[in-house]
Write a structure and sequence with these properties.
The protein is mainly beta and 210 residues long. The protein contains three helices and ten strands. The longest helix has 17 residues.
Length: 210
Amino acid sequence: MNRLVFAVVLLLIAGFINAQELKVKAKGEQTFSFEDKGGRNQASFFSNTLLEDITGISNDIKGTVSFDVAKVSKTLKGKVLIPSTSIKTGISLRDEHLQGEGWLNAKQFPEISFDITKVNKVVKEDGNSLTLNVSGNFLLKGVTKAVSADFTLTYLDESDKTKLRAAGDLLGVRGKFNIKLTDFGINSQAIGVKVADEIEIAVNIVGSNK
């Protein structure tokens, strides 16, 4: 085998290996829905204050993600949404402030969303799991800002065990990113205490392709 042929063979092999990003039974494009009537999916925010840490949680997650299992990084697209009124902090009075005009203004802006725009790189690849750095548009209080986030996708082929959660293949998504409240016109004292301008947004959700 001459050098040119050898080089071509190596390139083909490398291309094949790089294309097989997920080692799963499914072929082609798959679409996963994250709506879960059982309320087991979760999106949250975390913030520090002078007196306490505040965590807000929503279990009302909607949206879809789709990709070709052989080339996830080139085909990944999707959007996740939560109703602004679904976020709870564990204290009723604080939740009232949270929904008010100075914070989320839930009546005027009823939806918070993250829309994937680009996969920047594959950080880690491990069989049925990928960790990706992605860019996306985050919508909060009527303002959209570009953010960068790390997400881990774990693909589970349908089995007797996965059927206990839902029918079809399952996709677990875990990720987090930070935002600044002032970028979205939010008063950092609007929930009764002074909170840090930068807060952490996280998701821990599972979707089904059936």
